[in-house]
Amino acid sequence: MNRINWRVRLEGFSFLCLILTLYFVPLIQNPAFCSESPTDLNSVNQSIPTLPKGMYVIVGAFQIPENAIQYSQRIQVDGKSPKVGKHQQNGMYYVYALYTKDNLEMARSKRGSLRATRQFYDAWILYVGVKPEDFEKTPVEEFEETPDRLVINQPKELKPAEMKAGEAMDMVPPPPVQQDQNTYNYRFNVIGATTLKEVPGYVTIVDATRNKAMKSVSTNQIHPLEAPTTQSKEIIAICDIFGYVKEQAKFKIDDPMSSEDKDMIIESGGVTTVKFELQRHKVGDILIMYNVYFYNDAAIMKPESKFELTSLLAMLKENEKLTVKIHGHTNGNDPGKLIKLKPDDHNYFEVTANNIETMSSAKDLSKERAEVIKRWLIDQGIDEKRMEVKAWGGSKMIYKKTDTMAGKNVRVEIEIVKE
């Protein structure tokens, strides 16, 4: 009887060991569970393989390796976690659901099935060392490795260095710079709390003592920040990106871990990373599109408006139940000239000889400007039933018409009506 009991116990112990092995070995092999800290980006970077030549169906593109790994672990495609790879040329980290060396039709089929789901509406094909025309005689539009949605069209007031057409955000992040005693390397890691994808945009650095803006820096890249010339050396990092609730963190630039917001901060490899997980706006919120610009007297947008329009499009695609009201406003109520598109004209970002020119009220101008944004969104696949337009003219100005800030009266607002 005792021998039987011991045999049962040994078999049970062996079975338990097998279960623990099957469970823990994959975790140990996963780079996010290595003995080294998962916040050590250099270690994480080295654990991600380089993408070999071929075609990939991408479900996420990241500048920070930790973000790519976290995203791949939190989602599933066909019941499995997708893989992560680094692009040797542009330094980006891609999460992909399919890799094929030469089967273009397979890649396109997979992309189509993923796009049919709300979660992966923006799936696309990445070509590494190959082009679609290598596999078919008829050229196609998707020969570029980077989709248009990643292109930076920076807000006008930031006055960035001029970028070539098609130049994209997926460039190699700059290495930590050689800093003096008053300069510190910072990276603002900004992701959407729901999607876990990196959010392109800017973080404003404010001198906390003087309450004065110092500079704006792009998200998810390393930047050298100079300390304010105050005794406290405290700064406030304000992350106010269209479509998301504003977040901020306050800390000493030379001793960030002493702040109340230290849970948002990681120090590793000479770089301090401040992490923002942004929440989407809710029903009743009104978002001002200050970075959508119109030509004078026209319901036609300037090209630099594309960045914020793309952010609005992403917000609507993330939640198919979301409905919005587009409010148009002008600076004053004086009537004047109106330049607008013909019904069959889809050239939203250029005034041409093909445009209609007439006289109108300020209210009509505000209506046409709201309508042109609605038309653009419809062209991008948004159901027109999810949008309505409200024209205000100059009846709800923020500043007096003679104020130096009166230009901000010309604006479009997005009200979230339903979600």
Radius of gyration: 26 Å
Oligomer: single chain
- Report the portion of residues in β strands: 25-35%
Question: What's the count of strands?
Answer: 18
| Gap between N and C termini | 66 Å
Order of helices and strands: HHEHEEHEEEEEEEEEEHEEEHEE
Shape: globular
Count of DSSP helices?
Answer: 6
Summarize this, please?
By secondary structure, the chain is an alpha+beta fold.
Topology record:
Layout: H1 2-29, H2 41-47, E1 54-62, H3 65-74, E2 83-86, E3 93-100, H4 104-115, E4 124-128, E5 183-192, E6 202-207, E7 212-218, E8 222-226, E9 234-239, E10 247-252, E11 265-268, E12 271-278, E13 286-288, H5 306-318, E14 323-329, E15 336-340, E16 356-360, H6 362-379, E17 387-393, E18 411-418
Parallel strand pairs: 5-12, 14-17
Antiparallel strand pairs: 1-3, 1-4, 2-3, 5-8, 6-7, 6-9, 9-10, 11-12, 13-18, 14-18, 15-16
Task: Describe the protein in words.
The protein is of the alpha+beta class. About 20% of the residues lie in helices and about 25% in strands. The protein has helices at about 1-30, 40-45, 65-75, 105-115, 305-320, 360-380, and strands spanning about 55-60, 85, 95-100, 125-130, 185-190, 200-205, 210-220, 220-225, 235-240, 245-250, 265-270, 270-280, 285-290, 325-330, 335-340, 355-360, 385-395, 410-419. The chain has a four-stranded antiparallel β-sheet with strand order 2-3-1-4. A four-stranded mixed β-sheet has the order 8-5-12-11, with no helix packed on it. A hairpin with a 6-residue loop joins strand 2 (about 85) and strand 3 (about 95-100). About 30% of the residues are buried. The model is unreliable at about 20-40 and about 140-170 (pLDDT under 50).
